[in-house]
């Protein structure tokens, strides 16, 4: 009998220890978004991430998604994650070039890498290493958070025939592209996505760029600004997951792996979702929205954009050693990768078009 009691005691102790360690592993996080939670595909990665992580941990790791409609601070995600108010954020790294110019590298730069090139740089080049270095200074970890692929050059009320036509235009265009446009005489304004249509409609803006046909058409920009230009400035815009490092370090090791794996999966998924979305929108655009005039900027305008981009990049490289280091690294990687991009994708598309 005594022996039986002893066994029962041990059993109870094990049960208690197991249940309390399980209880300790129940974790609640919050993720702040730079977009309204309904603004898919941009909001898809964090929403899908929360679902995946919950399932993969049997409901033990809960991430509550809070869109910009709730936080009222679309562009405050950096500070909210840095300060620990939110354990995670989903945002565009280049929104924060005012805080740190090197955040630009993790979204896209004008005339920069394609998505395939950029992915290779992130995961099999030095991209992620630089990301860790730049965000580490702010007590954060950063990870790729979904890519839009090539973005369209934006919606304009009037046709752009020369560089002169850009002068005095009020345009929403973030990141380095905004600096390029400013150099060409554009008055650049950064307005959160949710407020863009109203700004265009009221004349606060003459032009804006957003993403691509899928997302853009839903926003209704074509009703006010029918000239729709092909892209040059955001060849592969990557969203970014930000994580408060202290919060991350407190996670059990297996949850860290689950989180990282889920982030990679939902990021890959966003590109697929957005590509399908844009392909569908483009296919019906001519018929359903005949007033949209698709244009490519004239060559002298493109050349002026390229020249301004090079000058701006050089001016930052001159005063910021880390900027120069990342720029040199990206240029060297792109030089190699671009040759393969031409030999593979470019020639395949060209060949398949020729036999159509
Ligand atoms: Ca954009």
Give the key terms.
11 strands; binds calcium ion; D-Maltodextrin-Binding Protein, domain 2; globular; 356 residues; single chain; 5-stranded mixed β-sheet
Secondary structure blueprint with pairings:
Elements: H1 2-24, E1 27-33, H2 44-56, E2 61-66, H3 68-71, H4 77-82, E3 88-91, H5 115-124, H6 127-136, E4 140-147, E5 154-156, E6 170-172, H7 175-183, E7 187-189, H8 196-202, E8 207-208, H9 213-219, E9 227-229, E10 238-244, H10 245-250, H11 253-288, E11 293-295, H12 299-319, H13 321-354
Parallel strand pairs: 1-2, 1-3, 6-7, 6-8, 9-11
Antiparallel strand pairs: 3-10, 4-10, 5-8, 5-9
The chain binds calcium ion.
In words, what does this structure look like?
The chain is an alpha/beta fold and 356 residues long. It folds into two domains: 25-146 and 236-288 and 321-356, 3-Layer(aba) Sandwich (D-Maltodextrin-Binding Protein, domain 2); 151-233 and 289-319, Periplasmic binding protein-like II (D-Maltodextrin-Binding Protein, domain 2). It is built from 13 helices and eleven strands. It has helices at residues 2-24, 44-56, 68-71, 77-82, 115-124, 127-136, 175-183, 196-202, 213-219, 245-250, 253-288, 299-319, 321-354; strands at residues 27-33, 61-66, 88-91, 140-147, 154-156, 170-172, 187-189, 207-208, 227-229, 238-244, 293-295. Strands 7-6-8-5-9-11 form a six-stranded mixed beta sheet, with helices on one face. A five-stranded mixed beta sheet has the order 2-1-3-10-4. Helix 7 (175-183) links the parallel strand 6 (170-172) and strand 7. It is globular, with a radius of gyration of 23 Å. The mean pLDDT is 93. It binds calcium ion.
């Amino acid at each position: 009998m005594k022996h039986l009691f002893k066994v029962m005691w041990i059993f109870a102790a094990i049960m208690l220890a197991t249940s309390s360690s399980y209880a300790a592993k129940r974790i609640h996080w919050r993720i702040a978004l730079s977009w309204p939670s309904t603004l898919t595909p941009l909001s898809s990665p964090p929403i899908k991430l929360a679902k995946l992580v919950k399932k993969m941990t049997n409901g033990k790791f809960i991430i509550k998604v809070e869109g910009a409609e709730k936080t009222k601070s679309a562009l405050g995600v950096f500070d909210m994650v840095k300060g620990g108010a939110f354990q995670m954020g989903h945002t565009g790294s280049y929104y924060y070039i005012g805080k740190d110019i090197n955040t630009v590298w993790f979204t896209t730069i004008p005339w920069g890498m394609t998505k395939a090139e950029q992915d290779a740089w992130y995961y099999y080049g030095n991209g992620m290493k630089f990301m860790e270095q730049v965000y580490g200074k702010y007590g954060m970890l950063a990870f790729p958070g979904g890519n839009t692929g090539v973005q369209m050059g934006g919606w304009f009320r009037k046709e752009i025939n020369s560089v002169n036509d850009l002068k005095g235009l009020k345009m929403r265009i973030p990141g380095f592209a905004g600096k390029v446009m400013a150099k060409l005489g554009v008055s650049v304004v950064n307005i959160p996505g949710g407020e863009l249509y109203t700004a265009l409609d009221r004349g606060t803006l003459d032009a804006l760029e957003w993403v691509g046909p899928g997302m853009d058409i839903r926003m209704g920009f074509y009703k006010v600004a029918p000239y729709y230009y092909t892209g040059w400035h955001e060849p592969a815009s990557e969203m970014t997951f930000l994580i408060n490092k202290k919060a991350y370090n407190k996670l059990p090791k297996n949850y860290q792996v689950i989180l990282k794996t889920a982030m990679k999966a939902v990021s890959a998924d966003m590109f697929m979702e957005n590509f399908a979305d844009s392909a569908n929108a483009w296919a019906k655009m001519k018929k359903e929205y005949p007033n949209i005039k698709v244009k490519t900027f004239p060559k002298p305008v493109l050349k002026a954009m390229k020249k301004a981009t090079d000058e701006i990049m050089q001016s930052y490289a001159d005063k910021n050693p880390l900027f120069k280091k990342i720029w040199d690294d990206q240029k060297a990687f792109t030089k190699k990768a671009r040759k393969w991009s031409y030999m593979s994708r470019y020639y395949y598309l060209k060949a398949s078009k020729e036999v159509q």
